[in-house]
Amino acid sequence: MAAKSRVPVSRMIRMPQPATKVSLTGIKPTGEPHLGNLIGAIRPALKLAEEYDSIYFIADYHALTSERDPAAFRHYTRAVAAAWMAAGLDPDRTIFYRQSDVPEIFELTWIMSCVTGKGLMNRAHAYKAARDRNVEAGEEPDFGINMGLYNYPVLMAVDILMMESDVVPVGRDQLQHVEYAADIAGSFNHLYGSSYRFTIPEAIIPEADTAHTVPGIDGRKMSKSYDNTLPLFLPENQLKKLVRRIPTDSTPVEEPKDPDSSTVFQILEHFATPEVIADTRKRLEAGGVGWGELKNQLFEVLNAELAPLRERYTELMEPGSDLDKYLAEGAAKARERAGRVLRSVRGAIGIDG
Ligand code: ADP
Ligand code: TRP
Predict the structure, then answer these.
(1) Domains of the chain and CATH, by start
(2) What residues contact residue 166 under an 8 Å CB cut-off, 6+ apart?
(3) Residue with the nearest Cα to atom 12 of ligand 1?
(4) Residue-level pLDDT at 207
(5) Higher per-residue pLDDT: 72 or 10
(6) How many whole angstroms from 83 Cα to the centroid of ligand 1?
């Protein structure tokens, strides 16, 4: 009997390395990116690339449910892509593409519509809210509601499933959409799972995080819908003008001031170093610092932070800039991945070749 070779167990069994999980972020290009987006969305999403294989895409076909102006549609799509790159998105270490450049997504959207219950769509928050608004206004419930809005959750599910995403970082308002993606994946897997199974995605929701909510120039949460934003890439003189417009109370220069009731100070807190914040707080509480001086300080801090981003953004927004090249390379990577999934799905449902 041949002697058994004595290979240590640890050398015989190669321990599987846990594969890095895939995170997918979709960005709807509906307006000029602002400081709130940078602090609350862009920077936290870019940080995920340290931990996950990260995929970012511009969800332009999602914006089409409401954007009817072709020039604005084109502009916001480029502006949002340029903003993310200027803020540090590295297209070599991640996959970054425009949804409309990946036709496989739309073929899969039809396939997945065929395994999605209509009742599920009837219960979607955004659709229900649009109906409620109509009823309240005395209109037909479906007045002005297009099929894009109705089918929005299926397209979003496909964005997620097509890239075999494990996690999807979203705000609380998008949680239902990620749950729907998991549901729809489950329906497919139930029917065809012996041939192909979709990865079931999970949402990552940031904790209710007031520390990351930037106030707008009127003191309410900064939001396009309140028209109170500081857009990220304003030219210097316009940024200065907007900062000057932030309302302040009429406390005279020499009086002590309450930093925490000042919008100017609250915005500063998101951008200045801890030392500068502590020092400014002390000076305000001591009196002798006017609101005008504080606004100048805020402008200087913002401008120092934003100037390099603004420069990169301006370059990328030039026609024929590297932006187009990066998006084309990203689309090729995304299509390669999507093509693989689509071929398996077509085979699973009975379409060969
Ligand atoms: P808006 O309210 O301006 O329409 P969006 O709804 O397009 O902004 O938000 C895009 C992302 O930016 C979301 O993840 C949202 O949480 C984040 N965000 C928007 N406004 C702020 C803010 N003022 N502070 C922190 N994060 C914000
Ligand atoms: N619906 C998302 C929003 O309004 C945008 C989006 C589209 C998205 N497809 C996605 C987000 C896929 C995450 C994953 O913000």
Answers:
(1) 9-212+319-349 (3.40.50.620), 233-315 (1.10.240.10)
(2) 21, 22, 23, 52, 199, 201, 202
(3) 37
(4) 74
(5) 72
(6) 14
